[in-house]
From TrEMBL:
Domain PurM-like C-terminal: 165-320
Organism classification: Bacteria, Bacteria division TA06
Family from the record: Belongs to the HypE family.
The name this protein goes by in its record: Hydrogenase expression/formation protein HypE
GO terms (BP aspect): protein maturation
Domain PurM-like N-terminal, chain residue ranges per copy: 43-145
InterPro entries linked: HypE (IPR011854), PurM-like_C_dom (IPR010918), PurM-like_C_sf (IPR036676), PurM-like_N (IPR016188), PurM-like_N_sf (IPR036921)
Superkingdom in the source lineage: Bacteria
Length: 351
């Protein structure tokens, strides 16, 4: 397959227009049991089994950064992978893991990593059904393989962009730049300590364990008015909202000042000169919910210790995605480039 335009971002996900031109037109043989296939703004695909049960699937890299410590790194890897099927509204139940490990990994490190995966799987009722484990020359951290998570349940429990209606409300948990802050605090602790002190650095580091939407989705599954959920990963809240609206063919009016924020995150982003709303935010759940359940959903999140707020509403498709800030409304375009990766590259080069 020849690709004439080879323009790609320096790092991070491939841009949507490349997928539209190269990937999505070539998805193999069509099958009628696929009810949600690959699309922008949807983290999972769904097939309908013969008995009517729906199965949601999502694949991701198995991401291990030794500098985080193997227990913490494996926690992150598990939650990244399983979160993408949890947003389907179905319950995560199965996991397949392919580990292509670097030669330098030790038996103790592998045991620590796998014990953490097992512990988290037990905690969330996920069974590991198959996989592959080996060390190979040429394999390097942090991408040490891949995994596929599966969630199952009746079609009535399935959420998706096709369910969204005009007038529905937008609810956001945890606010922007969750992953950005958690990872920067762990990767560059001395910079935050020097700027703000050790207590601030510890609070920023604690954000690491917010980088999951499994608890958020467990709360949201109790509300039949929840239409669709999306984890704000690369390009953050603005990228996630743009992708959601495009996937569902609806408009959004987002009130910037009403989006929940966390002070330690906003200060961290200011220090590193990062726009928090376009930076990677694994753990931030974007929810479209029926208007009569939005308030109760926010209260349920807060009761679980999850910061949340209602921050906008669904409008007509021709409106596109708009952001209201300081009394002015502006159109929102996809950010395209996530500043987190370039910031990390710069900080590593500075030593």
């Amino acid at each position: 397959m020849k690709i004439r335009d080879k323009t790609l971002p320096a790092l991070g996900k491939i841009p949507p227009e490349f997928f539209d031109r190269v990937i999505y037109p070539r998805l193999g043989a069509p099958r009628p049991d696929v009810i949600i296939g690959p699309r922008h703004g949807v983290d999972y695909g769904v097939i309908r089994l013969a008995d009517g049960t729906c199965l949601a699937l999502s694949s991701d890299p198995f991401f291990i950064v030794p500098a985080y410590g193997f227990d913490r790194a494996a926690w992150f890897a598990f939650h990244i992978i399983v979160s993408d099927v949890a947003v389907s509204g179905l319950e995560p139940v199965y996991l397949a893991v392919d580990l292509n490990l670097p030669p330098e990994i030790t038996a103790l490190e592998l045991e620590t990593m796998w014990e953490t995966v097992h512990r988290e799987a037990v905690r969330y009722g996920v069974n590991i059904v198959t996989g592959h484990t080996a060390r190979y020359a040429g394999c390097n951290y942090p991408m040490v393989g891949g995994a596929t998570a599966l969630a199952a349940g009746p079609e009535s429990d399935l959420r998706g962009p096709h369910l969204v209606r005009s007038g529905d409300r937008l609810v956001i948990t945890k606010g922007p730049a969750v992953e950005t802050t958690g990872l920067l605090a762990i990767s560059f602790p001395d910079r935050l300590k020097a700027a703000f002190g050790a207590d601030f650095q510890r609070r920023a580091e604690a954000i690491f364990y917010q980088m999951s939407v499994l608890e958020d989705c467990a709360v949201a599954r109790r509300f039949p008015g929840v239409r669709v959920m999306h984890d704000a990963t690369e390009c953050g809240i603005w990228g996630g909202l743009y992708e959601m609206a495009r996937a569902g063919g609806f408009g959004l009016l987002v009130e910037r000042e009403r989006i929940v924020t966390q002070s330690v995150i906003m200060e961290t982003c200011r220090h590193f000169e990062i726009d928090p709303f376009v930076s990677i935010s694994e753990g931030t759940l974007l929810v479209i919910v029926a208007p009569d359940q939005a308030g109760a959903l926010v209260e349920a999140f807060q009761a679980r210790g999850i910061p949340a707020s209602e921050a906008g509403l669904v409008t007509s498709p021709e409106d596109g995605v708009r952001v209201k800030e300081a009394g002015r409304v502006r159109p929102l375009e996809h950010p395209r480039t996530d500043p987190y990766w370039l910031t990390v590259e710069r900080l590593l080069s500075e030593g």
